[in-house]
Write a structure and sequence with these properties.
This protein folds into two domains: 147 residues, Alpha-Beta Complex (Quinone Oxidoreductase, Chain A, domain 1); 140 residues, NAD(P)-binding Rossmann-like Domain (Rossmann fold, 3-Layer(aba) Sandwich). The chain is 29% helix and 27% strand. It has nine helices and 16 strands. The strands form three sheets. Strands 3, 5, 6, 7, 8, 15 and 16 form a seven-stranded mixed sheet that branches. Strands 11-10-9-12-13-14 form a six-stranded parallel sheet, with helices on both faces. Helix 9 links the parallel strand 15 and strand 16. Helix 1 packs across helix 9 and helix 2 crosses helix 3.
């Protein structure tokens, strides 16, 4: 039995194509998933365009997300027909991923979808939205409340940023969104942002301590943007850093950390514990309005992933790509 998948290979040269793969060749695991939807993330785009050493083994089925229903299972927590989602765990990097009609994984990696989320909703949210939920929960564990002041979200038109804005606004926070897309203000305001700032204000080198404004930050950019954000956080505030769209460097000073007592939380969504995953997805099921996903997600077919990856890397996308793997 075979299924369609987006297959990357390096023999003899790099190639990417929609191909038929043998289901029997899927990696070992105790749950076989009939995938309904996957997504196209920034990391997927890097792999598809061969722009970064994301893929560690070849050939590789791309896709760090998969959402669908259990087809067969020997894991005690899952039965055929259960709606599930899997994010990270090396999918699309060291293990065949979710841009395929079927995938097989260890059941301990799976999250059973909380009502009212469907597999389509879960894919529209994807690793990006799940990461956003982890960021918001990190700020809340730090003790931040809406009364402490506004929260800054950088890269706000991306998948993580969009859902972070929506979750923070739903929780009652004043949200300040940062974007490099001048036409995106209306989109961000619909998600709940009260103010939209140009990204250019955060990309230049500046003083390590600047005017205190934000109680917290969700940063998806890294590099100078993260340094500037930290420099503007109020005393005892917190920053959740989860991305590196501007770069992996961090040209900052210890000044905000030792003179204002701010905290910097690194968010790892790839290998987060099962308990944190379930808590994040429960939060998404409770607090994310499914109607908002219609404005965030753009549905494409499996074969559309190749040109879409180029658009994503070029910064031309607002929201997220939702991939119907059966189209």
């Amino acid at each position: 039995m075979s299924c369609r998948a987006l297959l990357l290979d390096k023999q003899p040269d790099f190639s990417v194509q929609v191909a038929d793969i043998d289901v029997a060749s899927l990696p070992e695991g105790d749950v076989l998933i009939r995938v309904s939807y996957s997504t196209l993330n920034y990391k997927d785009a890097l792999a598809i365009r061969n722009r970064s050493p994301v893929v560690r083994i070849w050939p590789m089925v791309a896709g760090i997300d998969a959402a669908g229903v259990v087809e067969s299972s020997s894991h005690p927590d899952f039965r055929p027909g259960d709606p599930v989602v899997v994010n990270g765990w090396g999918l699309g990097e060291t293990r065949w991923g979710g841009l395929a009609q079927k995938t097989r994984v260890p059941g301990d990696w799976l999250v059973k979808l909380p009502a009212p989320l469907t597999p389509r909703d879960a894919a529209a949210i994807g690793t990006a939205g799940y990461t956003a939920a982890l960021c918001v929960q990190a700020l809340e564990r730090h003790g931040l409340t809406p009364g402490d002041g506004p929260v800054l979200v950088t890269g706000a038109t991306g998948g993580v940023g969009s859902i972070a804005v929506a979750l923070l606004a739903r929780a009652g926070f004043e949200v300040v969104a940062v974007t490099g897309k001048a036409t995106a203000a209306e989109y961000l305001q619909r998600l709940g942002a009260s103010e939209v700032l140009e990204r250019a204000a955060f990309t230049a080198s500046a003083k390590p301590l600047q005017k205190e404004r934000y109680a917290g930050v969700v940063d998806t950019l890294g590099s100078q943007a993260l340094a500037n954000a930290c420099a503007r956080v109020r005393r005892d505030g917190a920053v959740a850093a989860c991305g590196l769209a501007m770069g992996m460097d961090f040209p900052a000073s210890v000044a905000p950390f030792i003179l204002r007592g701010i905290a910097l939380y690194g968010i790892d969504s790839v290998y987060a514990s099962r308990a944190r995953r379930q808590a994040a997805w429960s939060r998404l099921g409770d607090d994310l309005d499914p109607a908002l996903l219609g404005g965030i997600a753009h549905e494409i077919a499996l074969q559309d992933c190749i040109p879409a990856a180029q658009a994503l890397l070029a910064g031309q996308v607002v929201g997220r790509y939702l991939v119907d793997v059966n189209q």
